[in-house]
Structure formats: structure tokens, C-alpha cells
Amino acid sequence: FYDQLQLNTFHGMFLVAKNGEILFERYRGIANEKNNLKFSPETPVHVASISKVVTAVAVLRLVDQKKIRLDEDIRHYLPDIPYEGITVRMLLNHRSGIPYYGYFPKEISPPEIPMTNNRVLEILKTHRPKLYFPSNTLFSYCNTNYALLALIVEKVTGKSFPEAMQELIFIPLKMKHSFIFQPGKTMGNIALSYNSRGILQAETQLDQVYGDKNLYTTVRDLLRFDCGTYSHTFLSKKMKAEMFKGYSYERPGKANYGLGIRMKEVPGKSTFFFHTGWWHGNTGCYATMRKDTVCMIILSNHYSRKVFGINRLSLAFGNYPFEPLDPMEKTSPE
What we know:
The chain is an alpha+beta fold. The protein has seven helices and twelve strands. Helix 1 (51-64) packs parallel to helix 4 and helix 3 packs across helix 4. The two termini are 28 Å apart. The model has no long low-confidence stretch (mean pLDDT 94).
């Protein structure tokens, strides 16, 4: 497996499991040059947009608990939202049309002021930026959707998002090396982010937003999470059915998006479910092959596009579509 990916300069962690049992795992390279920390099974790393899968499951657990309704207007939870008719489901499947907070013009989002989830909401309320398209007519991958979902989780639980995620996900699944980044809070021996030349990446205005990113975890913890998604007591059969199906069929193609999960759908082949991540130098992919109960995870803290080739290994387990995974895939289907 490992040799097929040609990861001769890889810094990070890689795991393949079936039925929850690890078939192969590898840890190599430098996690933190400041203290010469090497990667180990206990080294948390920022997983970028793979965070969205975990955020989505937290929301779906709250739906199971009847604290959130999938097809409720989000203004029921966030009254300051200025747009009508956008539902929780539309945030989860990226069909809201709400603009990306990273593209807000500097006149309304000065670069010297850190962006936070509450600031995203305040800008939407005050400046009412135009929707990209009428809600629920198209797919457009957008981090703002998941920043708002994190605020909804906070609203219905009465807890901060990092605390809510501990109670909803990390503690029940025994994900002991997982947490949501909080500014100013000591994080211990974590992996830092480097570019492909090994240069430490500086923080930016956007680094404090969570829900869409800012999950630190390990491949073993993500495997525990994957196993949890098969349990009907952790996530109901109904919510799994809602999560693992496509919602965007306006254009012909193979790519689609469920509730917090990407997918490749090809007639005659098993659906390949996955999510990529890319933030600063952190790149990775989480793949959950539901038909064959296989999980593959690769995480790197030194920028590398090679991690997005992990799906070539799917052919060893079943009849899955094999195409390069594109972490910048903005529209779906293709």
C-alpha cells in the first residue's frame, strides 16, 4: 500500500483498516521542528476540511436528539441571518449559496482583524453580502456553511463548540488525542504546519474559525470515528441514510456531496465516500468505503498533493471508481 503512494519524503501518518482492525499503519517524518518531535500514533495534526465530516456527524447526532431539525430554517437557530429559506441541510450539503468568508472584501473584513465564527455571522447580518446563487439550486463548496453549523451547535447545546465536540464525539468514541483548536490555549505536542520546502507556515486572519477546519486528531482517532459511524446507537440508521447519499444532480458527472462527505458515483461501481483536507501545509484524506467496511486515512503536515492519491488503493478492496481526488473541487457533480 505505502509503496504505491510513492511517499518517499512523507511527513505524517497513514492507516488502512477493515472492520475496524488495522491492516497497515505508518508514521514517519517530523511533526514539530521546534522540539524535534517525530510523528507517533499520539501526535495530533490539523486535518483541515476533514473536520467537516466530524462537524456534520455532531449535527446529525443533535438531530437524533431532537435538538436540531434538518429542514428547519437556520434563522430559527441564528436569528441574525439575513437570508430566507436556508435550512440546516443546505449548510451540510453546501447548497446554501452563502458566500465564503475568506472572500469578504477588506472594506468589511480588514485583514488585521482575526476572523471568528461570530464575526462571520456579524458581517452577514450587517453587510448582507449577496448570495452566490438562489439557495438549493446548485452545489458550491463553502467553508462559511460549516462555520455557521458550529454556531448552531453552540446555540442548541449552550456550550462552546470545542466543549460540545468533546461531549458529542470525542468522549463517546474515546478519541483521546482529538480536540478543536482554541486561540491562546496550550495544545501540547502537536504537529505544526510546513510548506513543501519545510518552512513553517504563518497564521493568517482566517485561522480562528472552527467547524469547517481546526480539528486536531490522529489516524487512530479517525478510525474510531469511522467505526462510530457504523453504530446505530451512536448515529441512527436514518441519519446515516441522509448523510451517505448525493444531493446535487443538476449537472452530469461522477462527483457529489452528501451531508459532510464527498463521494464518487459511477454506474456499476461501489460508491467511494471520502473527504480531503488542505489548509496551509496540512493535507490529507479520509476515505470510508461503506460497502466493504474499509477505512483509509492519510495525514501530512508538510504540503504534499500525493496524499490525494490514496484512492488508488481502493481497488484492492472492491470495485470502486479510481480517479485522482481534487481537494479544490468547488462544484459537484463535475
